[in-house]
Amino acid sequence: MKERLQALKEEAVSKIEEASNVKEIQDIRVAYLGKKGPITEILRGMGKLPAEERPKMGQLGNEIRAIISDKLDEKMEQLEKAAVAEKLKKETIDVTMPGRPVQKGNHHPLTRVVEEIEDLFIGMGFSIAEGPEVETDYYNFEALNLPKNHPARDMQDSFYITEDILLRTHTSPMQARTMEKHEGKGPVKIIVPGRVYRRDTDDATHSHQFTQIEGLMVGENVRMSDLKGVLQTFAKEMFGQEREIRLRPSFFPFTEPSVEMDISCFNCGGEGCSVCKGTGWIEILGGGMVHPHVLEMSGFDSKKYTGFAFGMGPERIAMLKYGIEDIRNFYTNDVRFLKQFNRVNQ
């Protein structure tokens, strides 16, 4: 029995030294030290030995079990360390290698222009108002001096949802909504940026969905000269201090008198070129004095209060500012187009 135990020890130690992975060590442990292993079977058979030999054989069996167990633990630790070292070697990062470039997003040119206009008018004391894109016929037309069957409604072919609900055709409804909230008490001084919708054929200069910024100022003794001053400040800040403006008579149902504003061409300085079609001027926006009917329908006394309003298209301003020839570029999400507007260079 003694010789058998010594042979099992040498056999187990030899296999442990030859083991190359953790699984083999686990298999050896089960094979030699498990409940059904040969050492356990030998120790269970000690009852057949003379009584004086049993303690010695029991001690020897336990010593051999301890030796095999220690060898197994030692080999297991070596293999685990080797596995960790190999993993670290494979996952080592060469800090001297160039990193992958991080693609940074830019502000969309249209967003950039809208924010620039907002900042400009906030600096002149205007606040920003926002309203629903799904609007009622009353606020979109009637409250702006456009009753049902008014011929001027044909100027804005609309997306109707029901007879009285439509997608707003301009941001002007917020004129009426804001004045109603003031309950006939001035002053009112807002700009209203937002999306608007019209039934239009998309081409290089038209879109069925576009952006508009409405401006409104109502108070006592507000005059056309105030409108001109505000628009002149806007033009110079947006397109350069050398820009000049001119106001031409026009017609809008919600303003009286109404004007359209041109700025001197920033490409030729007013001498005439392809950008301004040889005129030296570029049309930029429309506006005028708020019609008395619009004031009265919103609860203001038109004899006490006057005001002006204007509306501009940020797409047109962005096209002029950045030399963009096709309005559809704003909405096609072409990364090649957007990459041109690097925030570092703007």
TrEMBL record:
Q: Which InterPro entries match?
A: aa-tRNA-synth_II, aa-tRNA-synth_II/BPL/LPL, Phe-tRNA-synth_IIc_asu, Phe-tRNA_ligase_II_N, Phe_tRNA_ligase_alpha1_bac, Phenylalanyl-tRNA_Synthase, tRNA-bd_arm
PANTHER family (UniProt xref): PHENYLALANINE--TRNA LIGASE, MITOCHONDRIAL, PHENYLALANYL-TRNA SYNTHETASE
What domain of life?
Answer: Bacteria
What is the name of this protein?
Phenylalanine--tRNA ligase alpha subunit
The terms under GO molecular function for this entry are: ATP binding; catalytic activity, acting on a protein; magnesium ion binding; phenylalanine-tRNA ligase activity; transferase activity; tRNA binding
Record organism? Exobacillus caeni
**What cofactor is this protein dependent on?**
Mg(2+)
Under catalytic activity, the entry for this protein gives:
tRNA(Phe) + L-phenylalanine + ATP = L-phenylalanyl-tRNA(Phe) + AMP + diphosphate + H(+)
- The entry's Mg(2+)-binding residues are E256
- Localization (cell): Cytoplasm
Taxonomic lineage from the root = Bacteria, Bacillati, Bacillota, Bacilli, Bacillales
Stated family: Belongs to the class-II aminoacyl-tRNA synthetase family. Phe-tRNA synthetase alpha subunit type 1 subfamily.
Write the record's keywords in alphabetical order, separated by commas.
Answer: Aminoacyl-tRNA synthetase, ATP-binding, Cytoplasm, Ligase, Magnesium, Metal-binding, Nucleotide-binding, Protein biosynthesis
Q: Its Enzyme Commission number?
A: 6.1.1.20
Protein biosynthesis as a keyword? yes
Check the record and name the Gene3D superfamilies matching this protein.
Answer: Bira Bifunctional Protein, Domain 2
- Identify the residues that the record assigns to the Aminoacyl-transfer RNA synthetases class-II family profile domain, covering every copy: 111-340
Please give a single GO biological process term from the UniProt record. phenylalanyl-tRNA aminoacylation
Q: Which gene encodes it?
A: pheS
